[in-house]
Amino acid sequence: MTRPNLFNLPLVFRVPLRSIGVVVWCCLLGVASPGCQRKAAEVPASPPPNIPVSHPVLRDVTDFADYTGRTDAVQTVSVRTRVTGYLMKMPFEEGTEVKKGDLLFEIDARPYQALVDQAQSQIDLYQAQLKLAKTTYDRDSSISATGAITQQQLDQDRAAIAEAQARIKVAEASFATAKLNLSFTQVYAPIDGRISRYYYTLGNLVSQDQTLLTTIVSTNPMYAYFDVEERTFQRLVKAINNLNEKPKVSKENIKDGAKDTFKAEPPVQMALDGEEGFPHSGKLNFINNQVNPSTGTIAVRGVFDNPRPAGGLWSLIPGMFVRVRLPLGEPFKAQLVIDRAIGSDQGLKFVYVVDAENKIQYRRVKTGSLQPDGLRVIEEGLKPDEWVVVGGLQQLRPRSEIKPEQTTMPTLVGGATEGSSRNKPRPPAPGEKKR
Which pLDDT value is given to residue 114? Predict the structure, then answer.
């Protein structure tokens, strides 16, 4: 292979070989020399984050258990006809309130009126026969002394009187039955309450004791049934027994001079679907006498007032889905923190507290019930004078340093957080105009 002649190259490529070597040598020295390297910039340490902390709230609370249930009427009546016939009148308005004794349905009464008249005629017939039998007996007994009337005839006269009297009783019983059936052609409301719709319209044939005409349910008060598990039931029984420890004298027994132990009715609260909190207050008035073996629960019932506003409707009707809160025991002092400040680690609850060096400490706690304002009871693991982290738990780790912002314990009121220092306006800096 022929080596290229450097002298035949253009002028721009005619570089002395000695100059090329000098350049390469300088580059190698520049790479190896530490004085030619630029030092890496040092990243300043980030300041500790500002984290809100609060002392636990100490106040009186009551343990409770929440359940779901259904409302039910105190009285429910299925209105049925007691005679067979055709509907003639229905003088009531569907879905309205009725009073006991109001006329609801009227069935064709003509066949039953005819039976009443027939029974009355039978009574009149047998009374005439009785009158004739008595007259015959009186005449025969007056001439029996002459021997014209035998003793057998007198016995027959007495038997005729007794037979006429018995027939009269049978006719009177038939008359009472016919009159009762006649009264059944008019159906009246057996209770006060709210009536349902017409199940049959005018002209329909209804059958005795079979055809359901309508239903009536009582409106005030209203029951709420729910099921309590056995563990909570034991606490409920203990609370009721504590309420009944001191005997009281009822007003009814004071008049008679007798003393009786007052039956305590624990309070119970209820809320409808969509309602916030538990606005309906009532009393526990029934506990079933046995446990359901398939579910391990006991049926319990609360009673609640259900007034009707003027010109309005009742807020509670049977069959509604409700949330029930059942208090358990007497009020007691407890520590509470906002529920968002409590973390969960494999099912175990914990909070972060700040020590004297402003470092985060992991603290395992035992929690209790959640209160309506968003605070949860801390039963064990926390002291009243400790500062609890109430925000920013996701960015914290145990033993990490923070800058605590001391504030009051936040609560949830109407869905908004109150009391946190983050929501408070920042004071203006020196020389800065106030916003």
Answer: 94
Ordered DSSP codes for 222-263 = EEEEEEEEHHHHHHHHHHHHHHTSS----HHHHHHT------
Question: What token pair was written down for 137?
Answer: 């007996």
What is the rounded end-to-end Cα distance, in angstroms, of the chain? 87
b/e code 297-335 from CB counts within 10 Å (16+ = b)? bbbbbbbbebeeeeeeeebbebebebbbbbbbeeeeebb
Measured distance CA(393)–CA(403) in Å, rounded: 14
Tokens 């020399």 belong to residue: 33
Per-residue pLDDT reduced to its tens digit, 52-82: 999 999 988 888 888 999 999 999 999 999 9
- All residue ranges of the chain with pLDDT < 70 are 1-45, 243-264, 413-435
Three-state DSSP at 106 gives strand
Q: How far apart are CA 20 and CA 35, in angstroms?
A: 24
The pLDDT tens digits for 117-142 are 999 999 999 999 988 988 888 888 88
Residue pair 20/14 in contact (Cβ under 8 Å)? The answer is: no
Domain architecture of the chain: domains with CATH: 50-60+334-423 (2.40.420.20), 66-72+223-330 (2.40.30.170), 79-217 (2.40.50.100)
For the CA atoms of the chain, what is the radius of gyration? 48
CB 391 within 8 A of CB 53: no
236: left (phi over 0), alpha (psi -120 to 50) or beta: alpha
For 279-337, the pLDDT digits (tens) are 899 999 899 989 999 988 999 999 999 988 887 888 899 999 999 998 887 788 889 99
Question: What's the burial of 248, exposed, middle or buried (CB within 10 Å: 0-12/13-18/19+)?
Answer: exposed
* H or E element, residue 323: strand 321-338
